[in-house]
């Protein structure tokens, strides 16, 4: 969990509780000169801010505390879309509309991972958006 948190940490419950990095309470960090620092919002706050988004660049975390939350939703819907390059822009425009500039219902988490694998296709990119079952979701469709 912390590895993802040091890079921000997107997740299904970010609408409820923020990113994983928003839930880090404190860190014990070994910095380049070998010093061991206790890092938090009140102790080395600049380093704490930096660690919660690009932490792997600033030191090695040897101990940490973060907030744990009960899962408010346990059933999820996940759909994989395979889209050609010419469909990506409209797809992301629709995702942005669904997100309503960050004002969407907290039960909706839409995130997409995409990759281009030329060994499979030079023009098709798999996307992996997800949202809770029973709530508003993108209608699964496949582009042609």
Give a brief description.
23% of the residues lie in helices and 23% in strands. The protein is α+β, with helices and mostly antiparallel strands.
Kindly describe this structure.
This protein has 144 residues and is of the alpha+beta class. It folds into two domains: 2-66, 2-Layer Sandwich (Uridine Diphospho-n-acetylenolpyruvylglucosamine Reductase, domain 3); 76-132. The chain has four helices and seven strands. The protein has helices spanning 2-5, 14-17, 45-54, 85-99; strands at 24-30, 36-40, 60-66, 76-78, 81-84, 124-127, 130-132. Strand 1 (24-30) and strand 2 form a beta hairpin.
CATH architecture of the largest domain: 2-Layer Sandwich
Number of helices: 4
CATH topology of the largest domain: Uridine Diphospho-n-acetylenolpyruvylglucosamine Reductase, domain 3
Task: Give the helix/strand class.
Answer: alpha+beta
Helix content: 10-25%
Shape assignment: globular
As an assembly, this protein is single chain
Note the gap between the termini. 37 Å
Number of E-state strands: 7
